[in-house]
Write a structure and sequence with these properties.
Blueprint (H helix, E strand, L loop, with lengths): L30 H7 L20 E5 L4 E8 L8 E10 L2 E10 L3 E4 L3 E7 L1 E2 L7 E7 L10 E6 L5 E11 L3 E10 L8 E2 L13 E2 L1 H6 L3 E5 L5 E2 L8 H9 L12 E7 L8 E5 L10 E5 H4 L4 H18 L44 H8 L6 H9 L2 H4 L28 E6 L3 E2 L6 E8 L5 E4 L9 E6 L5 E3 L5 E4 L4 E4 L6 E6 L2 E2 L2 E2 L5 E10 L5 E3 L3 E5 L5 H10 L2 H9 L8 H13 L6 H13 L2 E4 L6 E4 L3 H16 L6 H18 L2 H18 L2 H18 L6
Parallel strand pairs: 11-14, 11-15, 11-16, 16-18, 20-32
Antiparallel strand pairs: 1-2, 1-10, 2-3, 3-4, 4-7, 5-6, 6-8, 8-9, 9-10, 12-13, 17-18, 17-25, 19-21, 21-27, 22-26, 23-24, 23-30, 28-29, 30-31, 30-32, 33-34
Length: 717
């Protein structure tokens, strides 16, 4: 079936399914066609548009009628990419539906004194018999109105199909509404003068706001007048609360694809002082509509702090546009080319300053980044922002990193040469029950007798570790966490052969693609860690099996654990979000009716962790942020059996047990029982002493002491 937008005989009311647009056309050589179909085409000349007498031929155009084309012309003006792209829509009655997109990456462009003709082979989201695109625009002088664009779709033989007349709309390629809310007492970023601190030679000094940073990329960010001040709490914001806040419909929010995005200026991220921002809306069908920055870590009025604030805001909104971190772009679909040194050398808003490393002995790190960064996106990122297919860019459409789940099974093959001096190990149980949450442990150490320095962000939520999962069917998926945390702290660890390795525990059973381990069978897992110097350290393969249910009870409990909402609750470690109520009901059914089943320990843990903490939520009229206080007695009743079972090897893994015991101690303190709190922490340390090496015991003891200090101020303690 051909797209109706190239074929003039096609029915314009034909229903178009999203699956149709998953097939890309093969590339064809344009040079052979240009002489026949470009009319008065001639060897391309330098555009006279550089002369001030002419208006720029650049920006967005739109047709009218039942078949609508939104066109983007990018052949003139600042940072010209020499591309043309467009999105098709069908309009009928009071509805408009998206129908497909195209892009011409390398058109022939012919300039005359009166017009510009742009001709090239299009890449479409679906099949078409009219793959050649020709755009003709009359040139106008300054003071005149911009001319419309005539767009024709042609067969390779030159036969003309559909033709559109698109009126000029804007010098920008896309327009987005941005609502920014903040919590009480946190002042949002305003602007930064790029001349305040040394920068790259030739980069002009100018005052940059967040909208202007995107304007320089050709994107018009309109600031919404709806700006709310929300309440805050000293505990900070966790994943579940951010998720719940987004689900509670802020002013511009609708659960549909739309050019609207929300940013919350929050106080801090609960439990990790290094998180500067997060694009948290990656858990449902309509993703990338919300992000947050954390004021307490990025605050400051000195030039360095203000500069870093600008980068954090632009960076998090970049994720909402579906831009990945610089070193991750090869995992997108289609894969984007990586910049210097596997992306770590990118001078981009989407790189981490502390990770900047162009390789070949060039200066690295934060200072080198800022001395070279021109406050711009890279050319590939601008291509995505201006010309990416509609559903890949617009908020609320394709998931973050669209297509990154379907990867080459050999993506994590061992490097041919590995002189990194680092060693990565992925550990996990050999067997999991049907419906049991799959948790893996990552360990990073060194084989270099001189020791090695590297970053300590080992958890996959930080995007510096990826985990590939080959399912029993043979399909290989990339684990994609619901929440991605952006850190800019220069957290460097010095690893020695005899010293403490780095450890992390990660629940990988559920992510953006749903449940990864819902079918019985054998699974192969492999992790890849990207080190500070750009080296990619690959773990040996971990083989694990999900057992078939032994009996009807196993099957019933497994089904209760495998719902989508239950997976989200496990990833968030509990939530009060109304949208997850069915998931909470299922976990409560496991606790109440299957309390002796081995999987009940996980349901208790999620419910207990959520009860131990306060939970922030919006009132039904969205006028205020309320705090549901912790329920320590309930938390103690739920977490105590989790600890008891785990200490005897029938519960959660040791890293998770460490966290649960410290949260149980906090619950006892909130109850007003400091003796029980200290007893739990003492038991934690003694358990570690009986199980682990001295350097691990030292870490556990330090964490227990930190918890003692923090709970000394708990009510009742």
């Amino acid at each position: 079936m051909s797209t109706p937008f190239g074929d003039p005989t096609a029915e314009t009311t034909e229903s178009v399914t999203p699956e149709l647009y998953d097939v890309d056309l093969s590339d064809m050589a344009v040079d052979e066609l240009s002489q026949d179909i470009a009319g008065d085409a001639a060897p391309e000349a330098a555009p006279e548009a550089a002369t001030p007498a002419y208006l720029l031929v650049r920006g967005s155009y739109r047709s009218v009628g039942t078949r609508v084309l939104e066109l983007r012309v990018d052949v003139d003006g600042p940072r010209t990419l020499r591309k043309v792209s467009g999105d098709f829509f069908t309009s009928g009655g009071s509805t408009t539906s998206y129908a497909g997109s195209f892009v011409v990456h390398a058109p022939a462009v012919t300039w005359t004194a009166t017009r510009v003709v742009i001709t090239g082979q299009g890449r479409f989201t679906g099949t078409t018999s009219f793959p050649v695109v020709r755009v003709t625009i009359a040139r106008r002088r300054v003071g005149q109105q911009q001319a419309p664009a005539t767009v024709q779709f042609l067969r390779t033989s030159g036969q003309v199909g559909a033709t559109y007349t698109c009126a000029f709309r804007s010098p920008y390629f896309r327009t987005v509404q941005w609502e920014q809310d903040s919590v009480a007492g946190k002042v949002p970023f305003v602007s930064y003068d790029t001349g305040s601190l040394p920068g790259p030679p030739g980069s002009p000094a100018r005052k940059l706001t967040v909208p202007r940073a995107y304007a320089e990329a050709g994107i018009d960010v309109l600031v919404s007048s709806a700006a709310n001040i929300l309440g805050d709490s000293a505990a900070g914001w966790n994943n579940a609360e951010l998720h719940a806040a987004m689900q509670t419909n802020f002013s511009l929010w609708r659960n549909i694809p739309q050019w609207r995005v929300w940013l919350l200026v929050a106080s801090r991220y609960e439990g990790n002082a290094g998180v500067r921002g997060i694009m948290f809306d990656a858990a449902d069908t309509f993703q990338r509509q919300g992000c947050a920055v954390f004021y307490d870590i990025i605050k400051g009025t000195d030039p360095e702090s203000v500069r870093a604030q600008l980068r954090t805001y632009v960076h998090e909104l970049g994720h909402a546009f579906n831009l990945l971190h610089s070193w991750q772009k090869g995992l997108a679909t289609p894969p984007a080319p990586l910049g210097p040194n596997n992306g770590f050398g990118d001078l981009s808003w989407m790189n981490y300053p502390q990770n900047f490393n162009p390789g070949n002995g060039a200066p690295t790190g934060t200072e080198a980044y800022w001395r070279a960064f021109p406050f711009q996106f890279t050319a590939n990122e601008i291509t995505h922002l201006r010309h990416g297919f509609y559903r890949d860019v617009i908020m609320g459409a394709n998931a973050f990193g669209r297509g990154a789940a379907d990867i080459d099974p050999d993506l994590f093959d061992q490097p041919v040469v590995d002189d990194s001096g680092l060693r990565l190990e992925l550990r996990g149980k050999k067997h999991f029950g049907f419906g049991e949450p799959v948790v893996v442990e990552l360990k990073l150490d060194t084989t270099d007798l001189r020791g090695r320095d590297t970053h300590e962000f080992l958890h996959p939520d930080y995007d510096l570790v990826n985990i590939a999962i080959r399912q029993p069917s043979g399909r290989t998926l990339l684990y994609r966490p619901l929440m991605r945390r952006c850190v800019e702290a220069d957290a460097t660890a010095h690893l020695t052969v005899d010293g403490a390795p780095l450890y992390a525990s990660a629940y990988v059973g559920y992510g953006q693609d749903g449940h990864y381990f819902e079918q019985p069978g054998t699974y192969l897992l492999r992790a890849a860690y990207v080190a500070s110097d750009g080296s990619r350290i690959v773990s040996p393969v971990l083989r694990t099996t999900v057992r078939s249910p032994y009996n009807e009870t196993d099957e019933q409990v497994g089904e209760l654990m495998l719902g989508e909402e239950q997976g989200t609750l496990l990833a968030l470690r509990g939530s009060d979000a109304p949208s997850l109520q069915a998931g909470n009901d299922a976990l409560q059914e496991v606790v109440q009716h299957y309390d002796k089943h081995p999987l009940a320990v996980y349901a208790r843990m999620v419910e207990g962790l959520n009860a131990e903490r306060d939970f922030k939520y919006l009132t039904p009229d969205k006028s205020a942020l309320k705090v549901r206080p912790a329920a320590p007695e309930q938390a103690v009743g739920l977490l105590s059996p989790v600890v008891e079972a785990s200490l005897h090897g029938n519960g959660v893994d040791n890293i998770t047990l460490n966290m649960v015991m410290r949260r149980l101690a906090r619950a006892h303190a909130k109850e007003g029982n400091p003796e029980q709190a200290n007893g739990v922490l003492d038991h934690l340390v003694s358990y570690a002493e009986s199980k682990f090496r001295p350097h691990v015991v030292d870490t556990v003891r330090r964490q227990a002491d930190e918890t003692r200090r923090s709970i000394s101020g708990e009510p009742g303690a």
